[in-house]
């Protein structure tokens, strides 16, 4: 129900615009590195909803990532991430805004990310491929946790590196 | 004679105390969970926590620590660990029970960069324990570990050099044949380099009464999110051993491991060792596996098929049940392991 309302909020204003628009749903994953041992912490199942507009061959969009849906394979780590570092009760969503970008099989992109209430510019690379009647678009980028005022996670001698790799995968109808 | 050989092989068993299969969960290096850069031995505070978080079926918060969560603060400067293992083995009508290991290991962190590790205990005690035997306590590991950088470790003392898969079951051909069986720890100097996608551990064993001059190196490369492959080399007087190994995470639950080694002697003889295992964590803390191993020597082959299961019901406890078929003989093994 929450998602339905969110989708309606996102899509309703765009009906007035004479541009191509598509509803998207997708997933976000991240990879953080813990030391010592270069432990790979893979966050999966991050839920995402949003909208892509296409105008003059360029796509732009806004995506909402539900932060507390990430799972890293360890429940205690998930709890710490949500309650201690990402404060998901106060900041339940991260927002990724894609600046107008020409979507090709491989493309660079830029935009902004709002995480924990802090908005910063981000840029990365992307890939697009046909999938049935629609297309799948993947975007990869890096963020520095300190830029978003996220404390560096540390627990029982394992500290997470400041830089985290994120991947967004969406299906565009 | 056959049973004597089986007994001698099994008496050297130490069943899994390192977990290369955790590669599929992102643990590319042993260092996240073990104080030792090459794994085994006392666990870090984080390693103890993982036993309750994903290794075991049931747990409560803090149960994985040495003090079962009764103390609020986790161990930091002094880490305590230890193992008690019992083994029941049998082949047709012959059975044997023993306590393979009862030891304690301490790791004292003088600072973030300097750690001293020492273990002491008894090994290969007959069961029940009231039977008198002239076993003396021994220290199989004691070393100084320096960690000047996140990517660099230096170690000197008595420990097992890194080679191959580093599985804990020393009765397997890939451990005992190249000289990494239980109790074969030696005095070495070691340097370790660690990067995001790879690690290299190289050790040097000076010549002494028990061991010839030996150089050992192990390089492992992380592939994708769940797999690792590597090469190993051991050079000693008159003998060269080289091999490849890998841990492949097919899914989060299904994984495989392999190692192939070639032992060459100066006189021209060559042996080959093959070890494979396919396993699945069918439910949290319960693994079933099957494997095929073979030892190819000039005298012939020794093919073996293994079936088994491992169960980690709660932190500090591990049970293993395994059947091994070779020629027309069926051996079984039941192991209980208490670790803290």
Verbal overview:
By secondary structure, chain A is mostly beta strands. Chain A has helices spanning about 1-10, 75-85; strands spanning about 20-35, 40-55, 60-65, 95-100, 105-115, 120-130, 135-145, 155, 160, 165-170. Chain A has an eight-stranded antiparallel beta barrel with strand order 1-2-3-4-5-6-7-10. Chain A is elongated. With about 350 residues, chain B is mostly beta strands. Chain B has a 16-stranded antiparallel β-barrel. The two termini of chain B are about 40 Å apart. Chains A and B meet through strand 1, strand 2 and helix 2 of A and helix 2 of B.
What topology does this entry show?
The complex is a heterodimer of chains A (173) and B (340).
Chain A: H1 2-11, E1 20-35, E2 39-55, E3 58-66, H2 75-85, E4 93-101, E5 106-115, E6 118-131, E7 134-144, E8 154-155, E9 158-160, E10 163-172
Antiparallel strand pairs in A: 1-2, 1-9, 1-10, 2-3, 3-4, 4-5, 5-6, 6-7, 7-10, 8-9
Chain B: H1 2-11, H2 45-55, E1 78-91, E2 94-109, E3 114-126, E4 142-149, E5 152-159, H3 173-176, E6 186-194, E7 198-205, E8 214-223, E9 227-236, E10 239-249, E11 254-265, E12 270-283, E13 286-297, E14 300-301, E15 304-311, E16 317-326, E17 329-339
Antiparallel strand pairs in B: 1-2, 1-17, 2-3, 3-4, 4-5, 5-6, 6-7, 7-8, 8-9, 9-10, 10-11, 11-12, 12-13, 13-14, 13-15, 15-16, 16-17
